[in-house]
Write a structure and sequence with these properties.
Subunit structure: Composed of two chains; the small (or glutamine) chain promotes the hydrolysis of glutamine to ammonia, which is used by the large (or ammonia) chain to synthesize carbamoyl phosphate. Tetramer of heterodimers (alpha,beta)4.
Strand order of the largest sheet: 14-13-10-11-12-15-16
Radius of gyration: 27 Å
CATH architecture of the largest domain: 2-Layer Sandwich
Protein name: Carbamoyl-phosphate synthase large subunit
Shape: globular
Strand content: 15-25%
GO molecular function, one term: ATP binding
Number of helices: 31
Family: Belongs to the CarB family.
CATH superfamily of the largest domain: ATP-grasp fold, B domain
CATH class of the largest domain: Alpha Beta
Cofactor: Mn(2+)
Length: 938
């Protein structure tokens, strides 16, 4: 069936600001959907309130509305635009819930807009726990014994009927919000209250817990003709009881018998075909009893999800792109597989490699939070690794996490006694995979670990293979290691730095040179979706220690862009936005753009975004071998946050050109002490400061500069471990904590400017000309991290002299640092005096905010300046802003009950929204200003 020709315009609803449970995977899906529909000549209108996403860029849609995701905003759009249909399946639970609310008010019907991809009945069928349960019973698909409760008393009654342990599952929530396990009647009251409050319809499913069963997910697509294709089968390493977003997952499924697999496929297809009016991507979750392979259905999500992004990157199959085309009437057999070009989209991908997804947490930002993993998702991001074997992919995933893991192990940082380890294994926590490895190293049996964790023995035996290899490696040093053993270790994913720790008395570069001399180097394999059954040509690669190299370097000049790795607090989707624009600008400038990143949720890791994509850890060893193969003109580190910047020193040492600002000048800005010395030399006011390496030095410095003092380390992002302290006791505690977690780091202690305003400037410098892209004023006073502050663009409460002084200092710093490209400078203003706090010679959270607020191609200009192909005078920078733009931070404290919600110098927000107001009399702004600012007038 060809596309529905009556659909001329489509409204896509985004997911809003990043929160735990709903991250940048919806930026990826919304962007793909918009591109897919525009290919068909359909006018795309998009609503989203997130300024940090590529999805809300003017190039993605014909009209973008940066508005709050509310019924009022939807009605405004429908009044202004002629909309034929709305696609609600690309914006997660937020979009589905909003569509349902708009429908209940009769607004879709009023404006003659129809839902495509899914209808309200199908949404209710899948999202309403009781409807889903009754539907499964009618279909003959087993489900866990359960009852639906709409009140506290009903919940207590049903709990007594079913018996413990129980699961409380609220209806219409995302990321398991409000859900949890109840092991005894003592826990029931609190769990029921929490679940009922979390559900927008005050409804929970009280369900028998199947703890210890295995969990699987299927990613499927269905068209209007009831054709169903299974894109990917994903197995959770963790058993039931851990939210799938917090579980390590593996594709393809590793421990399923063929009988169980076929049963799962058949049930998933039957559920898809009976869902109702649905055409697009869907996620189905099952639980399987490992004793007898009894299968029960857990849930079905009639939309793209976090798993859809993972499955797309795992297989190379563009799920959201195809789902959008199915929503407008196409069938799977009519659409082309974009990678093979010879098969249809009805062709199921086949993998000849192993995928491991590993979540990334930020518990360090939520002191006192319960770190036990359960039904409520707590991870803030994830990484994906591709390997020829499970151990290789697992170790690559660990190297991608940005938490100092060199592979599966911390080597000396996580030593525990056997009794402690066994106690830790009983409870699922973020580091359990590392503790399992430690326990195996201590001689604990696979059988015993399986009994405590319920993790399948196949996975435990694979980890035990890593342990056995490590024990063999420890018997050698770099001089005595046999070639075959070294080769086997690399094939198992051991990094050179792991080998350094195991061998002792050698350096990373020596390990590399040794194996290179022995011919043990990486080759690159293509992700082709069909295990070479059909010819596929795609610029999407992963590394392996194999004989054949499928990545052939081109003769063109090329530039590598380093991505930012997993999302975490302080480094999120804004850097993917910057990388994506950087890739486009590089290609426009006539270079081949090469992307290196390991985050499956991002647009920058789409197979058609760069000339070449290496889905690899942003980890020195992996980067260096890519550089040796590709021989680029240089590497861009300004767009990938602290992850990329941390590799700049190694690049400099190897003589690799850093595109844009030099390493030494970036280091001056990153090193708190060097930067303060520069300000002193430039005669630019700054808070009194001193540097220290231990507590005694810190106490002396604090006495000299005067309390209160701000204690902060160098080379960190998101205000990590920054503290404001008011006395010697607090100072000593802060310094000891900092040295424990960041040993050897230079500590800057500067006088904290109490009760002052904070503001920041973003600018571009090309070596001759400096352009101020935006001056933002924070509503909150200094002392609260800029990422957690509401910021107003342009500044509203600063005198012209203060703004001029800020701009003068910003240009002076940019010239002194010889910046090429981006710089962000933060200021404190007190008593009419302007002080410089810090400078960031890179993209930052404010970069996309300014681009969206002023509607300027900020990153395109900055990247071309970095490359040296353009000067600022080559561009006409027109800023369009009628009134003010406000950057609003968004938090996910609801995931961590009882934690300290007080804001300070360490960033805690997970995302942000943008809001536009005409003038400062706006009621929203006046309320915000009174609540947040210490200044009621000036």
């Amino acid at each position: 069936m060809p596309k529905d020709s009556s659909i001329k315009s489509v409204l896509i609803i985004g997911s809003g600001p990043i929160i735990i449970g709903q991250a940048c995977e919806f930026d990826y899906s919304g962007s793909q959907a918009a591109r897919s529909l525009r290919e068909e000549g359909i006018r795309v209108v998009l609503i989203n309130s997130n300024p940090a996403t590529i999805m809300t860029d003017p190039m993605m849609a014909d009209k973008v509305y940066l508005l709050p995701l509310t019924v009022e905003s939807i009605e405004q759009i429908l009044e202004e635009q002629q909309i034929d249909a709305v696609l609600p399946t690309m914006g997660g639970q937020t979009a589905l819930n909003l569509c349902k609310e708009v429908d209940e008010l009769g607004i879709w019907q009023k404006y003659n807009v129809r839902l495509i991809g899914v209808d309200i009945k199908a949404i209710d069928k899948a999202e309403d726990r009781e409807q889903f349960r009754q539907w499964m019973i009618r279909l003959g698909v087993p489900v866990a014994p359960a009852r639906t409760a709409n009140s506290f008393l009903e919940g207590k009654e049903f709990a007594q009927e079913i018996g413990f342990p129980l699961v409380i599952r609220p209806s219409f929530t995302l990321g398991g919000t409000g859900g949890g396990f109840v092991h005894s009647k003592d826990e029931l009251d609190e769990a029921l209250q929490r679940g009922l409050q979390a559900s927008p319809i005050h409804e929970v499913l009280v369900e028998k817990a199947v703890l210890g069963w295995k969990e699987f997910e299927l990613e499927l697509l269905r068209d209007a003709n009831d054709n169903v294709v299974i894109i990917c089968t994903v197995e959770n390493l963790d058993p039931m009881g851990v939210h799938t977003g917090d579980s390590i997952t593996v594709a393809p499924a590793m421990t399923l018998s063929d009988t169980a697999f076929q049963d799962m496929r058949n049930k998933a297809q039957m559920m898809m075909r009976d869902l109702g009016n649905f055409a697009g991507g869907c996620n189905v979750q099952f639980s399987l009893n490992p004793e007898n392979e009894e299968l029960i259905a857990i849930e079905i999500n009639p939309r793209v999800s976090r798993s859809s992004a993972l499955a797309s990157k795992a297989t190379g199959y563009p799920i959201a792109k195809i789902a959008a085309k199915l929503a407008i009437g196409y069938t799977l057999d009519e659409l082309e597989n974009q990678i093979t070009r010879t098969t249809s989209a009805f062709f199921e991908p086949a993998l000849d490699y192993v995928i491991v997804k590993m979540p990334r947490w930020n518990f360090d930002k939520f002191k006192g939070a319960d770190q036990t993993l359960g039904l409520q998702m707590k991870s803030v991001g994830e990484v994906m690794a591709i390997g020829r074997t499970f151990p290789e992919a697992l170790q690559k995933a660990c190297q991608s996490l940005e938490n100092d893991a060199l592979g599966l192990g911390y080597y000396g940082k996580s030593a525990m006694k056997s009794e402690q380890l066994l106690e830790r294994l009983k409870t699922p926590t973020w580091d359990r995979i590392f503790r399992i490895k430690d326990a195996l190293m201590e001689g604990v049996s696979v059988k015993h670990i399986h009994q405590m964790t319920y993790i399948d023995k196949w996975f435990l035996n694979q980890i035990n293979d890593i342990v056995n290899m490590e024990k063999q490696l420890q018997e050698h040093d770099l001089d005595t290691i046999p070639k075959e053993l070294l080769s086997d270790a690399k094939k198992m994913g051991f990094s050179d730095m792991q080998l350094v720790h195991l061998f002792g008395n050698c350096e990373e570069h020596e390990v590399y040179e040794k194996r290179k001399a022995l011919g043990i180097t990486r080759t690159y394999k293509m992700v082709d979706t069909c295990s070479a059954e059909f010819e596929a040509i795609t610029p999407y690669f992963y590394s392996a220690f194999d004989t054949e190299n499928e990545s052939k370097p081109s003769d063109k000049k090329k530039v590598i862009v380093l991505g930012s790795g997993p999302n975490r607090i302080g480094q999120g989707i804004e850097f993917d936005y910057c990388c994506t624009h950087g890739l486009q600008a590089i290609q426009e400038a006539g270079f081949d753009a090469i992307m290196v990143n390991c985050n499956p949720e991002t647009v920058s890791t789409d197979f058609d975004m760069a000339n070449k994509l290496y889905f690899e850890p942003v980890f020195w060893e992996h980067l260096w071998e890519i550089i040796e193969l590709e021989k680029p003109e240089g590497v861009i580190v300004q767009l990938g946050g602290q992850t990329a910047l941390k590799l700049a020193k190694r690049l400099e040492e190897k003589g690799i050109k850093i595109i844009g600002t030099s390493f030494d000048n970036m280091d001056i800005a990153e090193d708190r002490g060097r930067f303060s010395d520069l300000l002193k030399e430039l005669k630019i006011p700054y808070p009194n400061y001193g540097t220290a390496y231990n507590t005694d030095e810190a106490i002396e410095v604090a006495k000299e500069v005067g309390y209160p003092v701000l204690v902060r380390p160098s080379y960190v992002l998101g205000g990590q471990r920054m503290r404001i302290v008011i006395n010697e006791e607090e100072l000593e505690s802060s310094v000891l904590s900092l040295l424990k977690h960041l040993p050897g780091n230079k500590i800057l202690i500067d006088h904290f400017l109490d009760r002052c305003q904070e503001a920041e400037i973003d600018g571009i410098f090309d070596g001759e000309n400096f352009h101020v892209m935006g001056v933002m004023e924070h509503i909150e006073p200094a002392g609260i991290h800029s990422g957690d502050s509401n910021a107003v663009l342009p500044a509203f409460n600063l005198s012209p002299m203060e703004v001029t002084t800020m701009e003068y200092y910003a240009e002076k710093i940019a010239r002194a640092l010889d910046i090429r490209g981006l710089i962000n400078i933060q200021f404190a203003i007190k008593g009419g005096n302007v002080y410089v706090i810090e400078a960031n010679p890179r993209a930052s959270r404010t970069t996309p905010f300014i681009a969206k607020a002023y509607q300027v191609p900020y990153l395109n200009i900055a990247t071309k300046v970095m490359l040296g192909v353009n000067k600022l005078t080559d561009f006409v920078i027109e800023k369009k802003l009628d009134g003010f733009a406000i950057k609003e931070p968004v938090f996910s404290f609801n995931k961590f009950p009882g934690v300290n919600k007080e804001l300070g110098p360490e960033m805690k927000s997970t995302g942000e929204a943008i809001r536009f107001i005409k003038d400062l009399r706006d009621p929203y702004f006046r309320t915000l200003y009174k609540e947040k600012s210490m200044y009621l007038s000036k």
